[in-house]
Amino acid sequence: MKDLEGLFKHFVKDIYYAEKQVLKTLPKMARKATSEDLREAFEHHREETEGHIETLEKVFELLGLKPRGVTCEAIDGILEEGKEIMEEAEAGEARDAGMIAAAQAVEHYEITRYGTMISWAKTLGMTEAADLLQKTLDQEYVADDKLTQLAEGTLNREAA
Description:
Elements: H1 4-32, H2 36-63, H3 73-88, H4 93-123, H5 127-159
Helix pairs in contact: 1-2, 1-3, 1-4, 2-5, 3-4, 4-5
């Protein structure tokens, strides 16, 4: 990571690992959701996450790298916290509200990473990579907004 390109490559590996871990977690969250709308949101985002991984594999190809992740302790910690909520919170609206909070922590991490990588890709003249990553970032914003709507629409009040 001696220059911006090295940092960019590291972040691509970091988010690749993160997306793979999220892909493993989303089905568990969907199964634990009490709200049908929340379950559907998790299932939909699982499908999107598969696409995010495919997009990152295209970015790896543009970089001339084999797709592989590097351990991301940040996402591991966020997902561990979500796992605790799923295991310790009582079934129902309170657990749903907690899972939304955990899922939004993931979304915010991903939004931060993708935003940074897009900026760096543009600086490095990697417009195709920036365009691919922008589509993913747009989906992450939509997922975060959907979770906010679910929480503020009914789930937080029902959990109170």
